[in-house]
Task: structure prediction
Amino acid sequence: MQYDLLLTGGDVLDPGANLRGVMDIAISGGKIATVAPSIPASQARKTISAKGRLVTPGLVDMHAHVFVNGHDMGHQTDHFCRCSGVTTLCDAGSAGSSNFAGLRHVLDAEVRTRVRAFVNLSALGITGTSRGGELQHFPYADPEGCARTINENPDLAFGVKLRFGPNLVWEYSTAPVKLARRTAEMAGPNVPMMMHITDSPVPLPDLISEMKPGDIVTHCYHGRAHGIMGQEKQFLLKEVVEAQRAGIIFDCAHGRNHFNFRMIEKALDQGFLPDTISTDLTTTSATKGPVWDMPTTMTKLLHFGLSLDEIIRRSTANPAKIMGYEGTVGTLKPGANADIAVWELRDGSFPLIDSDGDTIAAKRRLLAQMTLKDGRVWYERPAE
Ligand SMILES: [Zn+2]
Result:
């Protein structure tokens, strides 16, 4: 038998590979073998019909947290991912140099989701405490340890994470950004840094002037102080537009505090799209909202007029490229890992809430029907 599995008749949408239309997908040895309008069922050991469904690459969540507080999603990571079409995620700095081995242990022992990670500039990683954030005390910054951790874990670690915000850094100046950038340079020539910017005490243009192309600004649609529209919150700052044009990446990372519908509406109206779509998922935001999962975040952007094509590209090919997976993840190209999501685009009226209590009623929503990981069915939505 030529193929292990054939997924037939789905409406395939893979903007990264320019695939669009009703097609069959053949899988062999956990990889995509071929995608074509019609592949004979006799050539496959097993056939699954995706007729009437949207079929995309498995989603890549650019910003989530497996290991906040040294446990958080932990062994539940697979559960949250597979029922929402996510097969790959990026842990956005949950762990630092002192506890990165713990993150690795959890991933090796309990998680099948494909994961890469930013290493926090703070040795502590993200550890919630009412006494202040991970870099409120300067001695917790560990540039040497962070760079060493990235170099010692090339399969997993690939960048430096900095959370810049009130009570998160030791000094409200560009010094923390400069240190994060220098740390990335110590780790290697093309190592990116990711910076959280919500409610920054310092204007965003000052912070991004210290970043370089390939670096990532996360939480770009937050509605607090000093966002992409400055304190007026009306018009995009020209420095932000220029930075994106120059290759700085803007990630939306929903989270409990970082996704404001009015900011999204204004930014999209002014032509500012996120480069990557992500959840900032933790156990709390996955089980109590307002995030819930990737398809909910994508549905909100669909409501505000981002096209499905643009949404899928920013949830598959774009983040996969940043994570070093170009051509192997986030795509249905032959040879890629056979990570696939099958969707229902359901019509109705779906009330959805942002991080600041604002609500919308979306007319369409994405619902994960099936997730395949490395060519095997990993999730199937129970019949309603
Ligand atoms: Zn985060």
